[in-house]
Amino acid sequence: MASLVPLPRPAHLRHQSAAHSSHSHSHDPNDDPSQHPPLVSPLLQPLSPDEVATITLVGAEDSRHWSPARKWLTTSVISLMGFVSPLGSSILVPGSKYLDFDFDLASRVVAILPVSFFVLGLGVGPFILAPISELKGRLPVYTSTSLLFIIFNLASSFSQTYVTLNILRFLAGAAGSAGPSLGAGSIGDMFEPRERGRAQAIYGLGPLLGPVLGNVIGGFIAQGDRDWRWLLFTLTIMSLGVFVAIVLFLKETYAPILLRKKRERAIADRLELIRQQQQQQQQQRSTTHVQQAEPPRRPSPSQRLVQWAKRLYPSAEAKAKIKQAQSRPFRLLFTNPICAIFSLYLGFCYGIVFLFLTQHPLLFQERDADEDLPTDAELPTYSWTLGVSGLSYLGLGLGFLASALTNVLVQDNLYRRLVQTDGKICKLLLKDADEIERIMAARKGQQQQHQLDDQQGQGQHPSKDVDLEKQKSIEPVAPGPDSHTAAPAPAVVTEKTVTGTATGTGDATPAESCGSDGGGDRDRNDDGDDDDGADDEDAVRPMPKQDENDPAATVASWGVVPDPAATSSKLTPTVSAEGDDAIKAKATGTADKTGPASAAAAATVAATGPPGSLATAAAATSSPTPKKGRPEYRLPLCFVGMLILPCGLFCFGWSAESEAHWLVPLLGSFLVGYATILCFQTILVYLVDAFVPYSASATACAVLVRSLLAAIFPLLGEVMLEGIGYGWTSSLLAFVALAGAPVPVVLFRYGERIRTRHKFAG
């Protein structure tokens, strides 16, 4: 055998091998691996839109997932804002006569102009602040407006002219409108719908009690210092405390802004990493003389200022959103009759409240000897001191509290009952909602039974020749692949089998008419008749004699379309006398426990529907859909308030005119406060429910109208009181209030139709 001679290696391989061998055995100091540039890592790329879209709020980053302590602390601060701003509207009322003395005003009507201008600012401010809060967030609006509120109040206290005072009061009202207008949105950001009740109730007390306590506090301060400026100093100190609470405890709650800021931080962090990576690579490659792009530099302070100024200037999209948001309330007001009518009545109620707040001193407070009095008629007065006269507002305030408590206890429960009764106002509303649901289900089952009796009684008697294709039928349900039992035979549905009774009268009890403990336990003969031998023509017909081996013929003779699976299996149809519940149990393999209404509904579907409708009915009744409410179910309490309001006005006006005991006009003011807030809160809830998703625009429309009327009513009320007195002034307002009472009744009956006809498209 020849020996194997190794072939010589190629020259270039021998050269590489020698070089490798010499390199492995020699240590050249100039060949240090540390002197070679390291491998360049791939550059990071900015976040793509898809990557940015995957960033979401996690855990406590979302205000909905805050701890209860954090939520209630935020609610307390927001409620404090909603209390102090309305308090500033009436705190100047007790010092109106000192304004007259300092500025030499012509009449007391002119002296209360600062109150009207402040309330007008409260109504105009939300149209500017609400769109900004949706674009920039709630917290910047709260912080900036609270600071402006302090500045304008402090400037008002140093006013040297009456015109300057009114202008600054208007600006202060606009700045202070953030708390009363945006607070409800912040609470909605934090709490789930089922949790908002208590938080909204606490927040809602601020705008109601603020004006009342403002008069009380202002009365004692003005009595001691006899100077209107200290009233504004007190308001400034209170607003300063609110500003400190906002800075220390308040955080952003608006989820879209929180998400946008998180994504902006992620984008900025990635850009910063890219900048650092480029700097590091530039340092590493400086010895290799590789051309490298200069890394981006951090913006200088002047550049940051320019960027910040550009952010303040709204973009074209932001301008379009602001324009649309600001115009929508006006379009709602002038195009939608429901929004217009309720906004006017809401403004009427709010105007009456401010009329009482500004005119109570005229009735209860003592007058100075040199004070101007009406020339046409001498108005009565109870001559209380300035501090004690402020307590007269407690009647109005207690009415507010009682009305708010009524809404909390009654509104939701009444709404649930009306949902169960389908909007029918009857004695059932006095029962529990669950009991009402059971009663209404039984009634519905009886009604469906009577309808089924009428349908089955026409054209299905054995003696009548009826087209088989038009007869009501039930298709048997074939067994599923996992079924362990054979498919049940098709059951003939008559007015007796669906009700489970043996004899057919329409006066069956709910239990009998719906097949629960009804005919299923009754003894029957083999021919299907009752034991008592009653020969009712509507009783279950006996099974006709057919060939047992021909199920199709048997089914066809009964007007039942045979199922192919049942025919192939030669299933024999049987007549069930156990009622509709038993039929469904056989068809679905499960016991029916959905109640009377579900049983009757399934029977109706089975009797009138296409083949296979029994299975569909059984599936539908296994999970009954809950009843849906309507916004009009909120209106019964509004109608009650509209009836109480005229009574309170009559009581207050004529008791003051006749100089009755002071408790009687206070009782009238209690009724007025109770009725106005009852209407006020109910109408607001109705507007929110009826104009989804434009609820904010509907409420903004109501805020504008109510602020305008609240600014006008004190001025007109003063003239009316001097002209016709307390009695006829209150009577005129009572007649106007009584004229609006039919509105809730009409809307309760036809509101859904009107809303559909005048649907707002945004």
From TrEMBL:
Q: Where is the composition biased (Low complexity)?
A: 445-461, 500-509
Compartments (UniProt record)? Cell membrane
Q: How does it sit in the membrane?
A: Multi-pass membrane protein
Its protein name is Major facilitator superfamily (MFS) profile domain-containing protein
Please give the start and end residues of each transmembrane region.
Answer: 72-93, 105-129, 141-161, 167-188, 200-222, 228-250, 332-357, 390-410, 635-656, 662-687, 694-716, 728-750
Q: Where is this region: Disordered?
A: 1-43, 278-303, 443-468, 500-552
User: Its principal location?
Assistant: membrane
